[in-house]
Write a structure and sequence with these properties.
- By secondary structure, the chain is mainly α.
- Helix content is 78%, strand content 0%.
- It has helices at residues 5-18, 23-46, 52-75, 82-103, 115-137, 142-172.
- Helix 1 packs parallel to helix 3, helix 3 packs antiparallel against helix 4 (82-103) and helix 4 runs parallel beside helix 6 (142-172).
- The longest helix is centred in the last third of the chain and has 31 residues, at 142-172.
- The mean pLDDT is 91.
C-alpha cells in the first residue's frame, strides 16, 4: 500500500504537466495518496506489524510524492524551484536529527517527531494540492503559501536542532 504512492506521484505529475486545469484530477490523486498513507499506518499499528523499515519506507514514499508533485508544479511555472530544494533540505535535516536523537539515547524509534515538525510535514504533504487550489482562486496568494512553507521548515529545523543540542548537552553534563 505504501508503494502505491510512487505511481500515484507520477499520475499527479502527469496531470499537472498535461492538463491546463489539473486541480480536480490532482485532488482525486491527492486524496488517494492521503488515504493510502493513513490506511497503511493504521493497519500496521492495528496488526502490530509496524517496523523501522516500514516507517522509513512510509516517510520515503511521502517524500517521493512531495518531490515529484512539486517538481511537476515547478516545470509548469506554478511553483519556484526553491521549494523542492527546501523540501529536500528539510527531509535531510529530519533524517539527521532523528539519527542524532537516537545516538544521544533519547529515542528508540526510527524517527524523532515533534509537534511543530508534524505541522510542517502536513504543510509539505499538502503543498502540491494547496498550490493548485490557491492558484485557481487567488494566484498571487501562492507567494504567501510558499513563504509560510519555507518559514515553517526553517522554524521546525531550528527547534529540532536546538532540542538535540540540549539533549546532548544534558547527557554530557547530567548535573546541570
Amino acid at each position: 500500500m505504501t508503494l502505491s504512492r510512487i505511481p500515484l506521484a507520477f499520475l499527479f505529475g502527469f496531470f499537472c504537466i498535461e492538463l491546463e486545469q489539473p486541480l480536480w484530477p490532482c485532488l482525486i490523486v491527492f486524496l488517494l495518496v492521503s488515504l493510502t498513507d493513513w490506511l497503511d499506518g493504521k493497519l500496521a499499528r492495528t496488526l502490530h506489524v509496524a517496523s523501522a523499515f516500514g516507517a522509513w519506507l512510509d516517510v520515503s514514499c511521502d517524500l517521493f510524492f512531495i518531490i515529484v508533485s512539486c517538481l511537476s508544479l515547478w516545470l509548469t511555472g506554478r511553483m519556484p524551484m526553491i521549494l523542492p530544494i527546501v523540501i529536500i533540505i528539510k527531509f535531510t535535516e529530519f533524517l539527521l536529527t532523528s539519527h542524532w536523537s537516537r545516538q544521544i539515547g533519547e529515542r528508540q524509534n526510527a524517527f524523532f517527531f515533534d509537534p511543530f515538525g508534524r505541522l510542517s510535514a502536513a504543510l509539505l504533504y499538502g503543498l502540491p494540492i494547496l498550490t493548485l487550489l490557491v492558484s485557481s482562486i487567488v494566484p498571487k496568494a501562492r507567494i504567501g503559501l510558499f513563504a509560510m512553507t519555507i518559514l515553517f521548515c526553517i522554524l521546525s529545523s531550528a527547534i529540532r536542532i536546538v532540542h538535540c543540542l540540549r539533549m546532548e548537552h544534558k547527557q554530557k553534563n547530567p548535573a546541570l
